[in-house]
Request: fold
Amino acid sequence: MSNIPAELRFAESHEWAKKEGDLIVVGISDHAQEALGDVVFVELPEIGKVFAAGDAAGVVESVKAASDIYSPVAGEVVEVNEALGSEPEALNNTPYASWIFKIKPSDADADLAKLLDAAGYKAAIGE
Amino acid sequence: MGQRTPLFDLHLALGAKMVDFGGWDMPLHYGSQVEEHHQVRRDCGVFDVSHMNVIDVTGSQAQLWLQYLLANDVARLQSPGRALYSAMLNNDGQVIDDMIVYLTDSGYRLVVNAATGDKDLAWMQAHLNDFDVQLTAHPELALLAIQGPHARSKIAELVPNARAELIRQLKPFEGRQEGDWFIARTGYTGEDGLEIILPAVQAPSFFNDLVGAGISPIGLGARDTLRLEAGMNLYGQDIDEHVSPLVSNMAWTIAWEPAARQFIGRGALEAERDAGVASKLVGLVLEERGVLRAHQVVRIAEIGEGEITSGSFSPTLSKSIALARVPMATADRAEVEIRGKWYPVRVVKPAFVRHGKTLI
Reply:
């Protein structure tokens, strides 16, 4: 059973999203990191890049494979977690403390409402 | 559901993440593939490789037949216990499989790959011709690999005296029968270690004893990164029925002498050699962050293009490495395309780590 914090929203593609002031913080779920295995490289999006909800925004590479990360909400990337460059395994060790990027959302409430809550995500991953 | 080795239930009990490998349900890792990799390089670990196939070759013409069947020459095995690595080629000189051949007291023992077992046996049977040879497959045997710098000393403490003595005496690339076990000092990791072929019914308790003695179980994930660092080919990925040993870093396994030995594929290999071999298998090292993967395109300025055959992250080197087939004229620099961008890579001999030491 993976860890699914109640205060987060989840995309079916296994990203989590959290409201932080005016911004949305994005990472990958515990279930995702476990499925990926040892993460060895994270390709971060460029600051200033604008995404629609569901756009490929970056890549997480584990020893096993490369997986796209999709932006769960629309908006502009304003911050990226550079620390993942030297410590990509943080995504394995602390998936909910290890954010990947922060977005200034164009319509946060509408996009967040389309995401799954903890119970919905738990059901989606069959737990 | 795939085929299962005798250790299937134990893998589950040890928390393995299982994957399909050549039709077999096998452990990918038991938690962390990278940790398992380090465990083998620094200490030792045990792999279940019972999905591989053991075939014994007996009969008065066993040697003569294998000299016809294989590109390497089993006559090089001077005394029982000695082993060699060889390709088995088709008539076009391309690789049907690669294998280890041991000379035993009663004939030869072949250990071939998992997914190719049926194909190999069919090919062998179709080429028995009039040779006085008997082939015996051994599905009732299990195969465990215990690899790492401390593998032999740790195993020697866990087995009866006669086996411990054999384990101490075995030279690299030797294997011998001891009771109903066949113990060989071979492996697929670039470290010292053993491969033990034993009755399947004994495998779970022996595997359990090893784990109980603190020898970590290691999955196929780490097996792949260990063999990649060691620069060893994986059948179905770096070599297959579309390439010859000449373009696969396996020229050393072709025994051209004696010139009169007419092994299957010889004519095609000679033609390829005489025409000038077009490509070669090399190692690539990515100095920037990122991960090289199979099938990415390799570009060599003013020379041409090649392709990665195996790529991953090297836990020992903390950077990405790959095997790639590139034009023969390739020197020491190339570029690889990763998601639309070109990254510079170093071209090196295809061996990155051996016996815990970095070679590049």
